Amino acid sequence: MERRFSGSFRIDRPNAMWWRVRNTRSPHQVAWLRHVRNADLGLPREFQVLRLQSQAPGSVVVVLSDDEGDCDGACTLTADRVLLHEPDERLYDALPLERYTPDARRFWQRVFWLVRLPGGGVLLRFVARRRRA
Hints:
Layout: E1 2-12, E2 18-23, E3 30-34, E4 46-56, E5 59-65, E6 76-79, E7 81-85, H1 102-116, H2 120-132
Antiparallel strand pairs: 1-2, 1-4, 2-3, 3-7, 4-5, 5-6
Helix pairs in contact: 1-2
């Protein structure tokens, strides 16, 4: 299996076991690489193309390259595991979330306006207690 991503990527090492490859452009993918080998070859500071090639169980080849796809031996890494986070920008569009009606919006705007006034919280508590009784 092979995955290819384009963007503006940066690589860093937050701890001794994991490396992080971040896309600084939308959709901001993040790839976590575990037990990276060949990392001492002088990695590029920034690159435009990230390719993940799954070779066998427990072996992933990571290729860091520029736009043209030119790559010398210094931008090929091997990792034991890759965890890929791909955010979905339209994730919540399909969920049946509640929407405010114009009347409900007007009600809550008035409540929040009252709370900001000095003594508004006391007035709201008084009205709420009267309605419960």
